[in-house]
Amino acid sequence: MTVTNENPSGAGQDDAARFTSPFDIEAPAGAEGWESLYPYYALLSEDRRARDDGKFWFFDGMHNPEPLYPFDTIMTENWWVAVSQMSTRVWPVPPALGIDHRIINGYLYVSPNAVTDPEEIARRAEVFGVRAGHYYGNWDEIYDKWEVKAKDCIERLKAIDFAPLPDMEPESSVFEHTGTYSSYRLLTSYGDLIHNLFEMGSYHFEMLNLGYGAYLTFREFCQQAFPGITDQTVASMVSGIDILLFRPDDEVRKLAKLAVELDLAEVITSHEDPHAALAAIGAHASGEQWLAAFEQAKEPWFWFSTGAGYTHSDRAWIDDLRLPFTAMRGYIEALTRGEDIRRPLDAILAERTRVTGEYRSYLPSDEDREAFDGLVEIARKVFPFVENHNFYVEHWHHSLFWSKVRQLGEVFVAHNFFDDHEDIFFLHRNEVYSALYDLIIGWATGTEARGVTYWRPEIARRRAIRETLSTWSPPPALGVPPEEITEPLTVMLWGITPESVQEWLGVGADGEGSGVLRGVAASPGKVTGRARVITDPEQIHEVEQGDILICRITAPSWAPVFSKLGAAVSDVGGIMAHTAIVSREYGLPAVVGTGFATITIKTGQLVEVDGNQGTVRILEEAEK
After folding, report:
1. CATH match of 513-620 with 3.20.20.450
2. What pTM was computed for the model?
3. What is the pLDDT of residue 508?
4. Residue 325, phi-psi category: left (phi > 0), alpha (psi -120 to 50), beta (remainder)
């Protein structure tokens, strides 16, 4: 990252320190023409230079840590609209508009838009108060209805099916006088698939912005009432709430406990390969009972993505059983040692009660205490949705969605367009529609479709470009640092604040400096240990007891390995990011939003993580 003293057009800052201009970023050699992989509206352009060069852009490594596949842009384009319309057109959030997107060298950069005119903020606040007040006042009832809508959307996604077009249309199409045929069903099924994704995307953010907004309001009250209070202390007052994202891990713990009870402990711990373990369990006298419990736990709790759920490469537990079985072996070993493997929920609740009571007692008047009580109550009420929606949307729904896209990819393989069903991800969703129609034309006419010769070399070209882009390290920020940030998700989820931006300005792209990284103090405690740098979910299986996890961001499905960790550190994230929440609920020290941890720290280095102060210190190099 380069810090310059340029004054970009529209920035309104004289000689202000800024990040590298997004227009000065060059493509790595061999990736020329990368722009052709993505839609025109997601790219930088000269006609938008005056506006885009004067804005602050940060890398969304939380959801898309790697160069985007063309098809995977459906997820980013989905939330580009879904998040933004809620803040801009539905509620609207008084000081915030939407979150803009640009793809730069294949990586997603985002920029929150703000409302700065006091009169406009006041006008929006009046509308927001009426609309948001309705949701806050009827939260439980609306949330119950939300769950029904989400589950119905998932059930309709399950029902979507793709199959190669038949050599001859079945007789039922003729004798039942359907009037529509396999070609029509294939096209409409694809349309249903895309519309289902966008439908769930809309549900995703129906209540989420309000959830973050309620917490942000409580946080601002505490910061004014208790000068110097930390984000960590504020967060502790809403911790200890049982949420769905812990249910998959709880299911793994129950399976571990059942294995010990059924004398299956050694059968499971002696097999690293999950499928070998399942075969051995099936041959055991008590195996049938355990396997029945395992099958019951899988649906839906193993539809748990190993990543954020926004990219097709984030496979779910149901596709790859290694993570839950690795955790299960650890839990079984702990149980045989007589240890308690339950989350420390009672201790967290006790601390929540203590901290809340302590700070409430500092308030000088009944009026202040009444306001405090109301704000902490609504923050606790909305908090479960902030996390629970994640299981329904990013994990259960998105994992199913990616499996359906792969099924469609098999149709293209069967019709000789692709060599592998994974090739479909090198096409943008709109290109898939065109390719489907090309396929149907060939089927209908008996003439070889153009796609048979067109797509293989084009996919090879795109694959080579994307592989080259993956060697580039995206800087955490570009453009002009903001004076203030008012968009709730940007602050609470990504942890982007003026303070964190200034920290980034003070660190070079090579990560060299004092050996100390600063971030958000996300979960209390101070631990020293050896670093384990994880930049790919595949590496999570390498975690050993006592490791300090260093990552871009954790996925909720990594929770089972947290029992092995000494502490967690992430490049991105705020006080309400999943790394922060899971760490607090597991009693694990954590620092998030460091910006540079994964490029500064190496696996094996001795590091000190201070979750009280928000610092990560490199103490010595890796052991030889």
Report:
1. no
2. 0.89
3. 46
4. alpha
